[in-house]
Amino acid sequence: MKIAIATEGKEKDSEISGKGARAPYYLIFEDKKLLEVIKNPFAVGGGGAGWSVAHMLADKKVDLVIAGNFGGNMESALKEKGIKIKQKIGKVKDSF
Q1: Which residue from 15, 26, 24 is spatially nearest to 59, judged by alpha carbons?
Q2: Model confidence over 21-35: pLDDT tens digits?
Q3: Is residue 20 a contact partner of residue 74, using CB atoms and an 8 Å limit?
Q4: Pair 89, 18: CB distance under 8 Å
């Protein structure tokens, strides 16, 4: 299972971001192994971040997204793509 975690930093000991679509980074894991660090290109800017991030993560074949909070658009877009969501706060390394 591929898991994307919205984070405040690039490391496994970073805090999970409460911003969902506007998180500074996304860390992608598979079998607890860090595969990729993505600097979120939609963290700053106009509207539509939720849809854009959902499409970006779907292209990465993510199965589950973890964030402190999800906006309605992001939640709808992820569900439409068959991606599960989980709200969680704390450190990335404690998410597994």
Answers
A1: 26
A2: 999 999 999 999 999
A3: yes
A4: yes
